[in-house]
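Example complex used in Figure S2.
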Amino acid sequence: MNKIKIPSHVAIIMDGNARWARVRGLDRVWGHRRGAETVRKIVRYCARCGVNYLSLFAFSTENWARPKDEVDALMELFIEYIDKRLPDMKENGIRFLISGNREKFPEKVKEYFMRAERETAYGKSLNLVFCVNYGGRQEIEYAAGKLAGKDEKIEDCLYLPGIPDVDLLIRTSGEQRISNFLLWKLAYSELYFTDVLWPDFTEYDMDMAFKSYRRRNRKFGKRV
Ligand code: FPP
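Predicted assembly (224 residues):
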């Protein structure tokens, strides 16, 4: 992929893990496992292509309502992912960031999040944002609370100030919804939907999304 018109901020709603497992007669946890493997590949590919920010919807505020064994498995996957990937994140200058309300996470998961943030803080290539216990409305409410009585902009009070607007939002698995993801930063994003289930999503599918993005005529509400 050449670097012409690569979106600076890509956000992904990684959907379809459970369906991927179901059609194979597997427990849905296997879908998430394969999904985490896709995360590894796509993070590496985005870093190589020159994407600056990659925001992944890894756990929504609603996901706590899933069966306990599934939630527990996702917590384990976060730990495992950080444990395995931290050395190459550091080596490749990837900066790991958390967006969302982390308070509800088990202590061990919070410790891994903090460790990854701390040890990658000087990363200068890709900013990898894990959106966890994340909800777009909750983020705006949080910002409004922080803002109360102060002379600041909402934008500066969001979970992670200083992150630019999303250029390209990708959602896998055929659903065409925003599902409470990054509401504020999606205002002028280009949207790309694919039927591919997240565990099957490859570098080729990412290229298809980049290709589609290159063809878009972004107007930001103005006449161009
Ligand atoms: C949607 O699949 C995805 C999630 C609930 C969370 C995304 C989690 C991962 C990709 C794996 C863990 C990630 C990391 C980085 C360790 P779904 O279960 O809603 O699938 P469905 O749409 O087929 O029901």
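The radius of gyration is 17 Å. The first strand starts at residue 9 and ends at 13.
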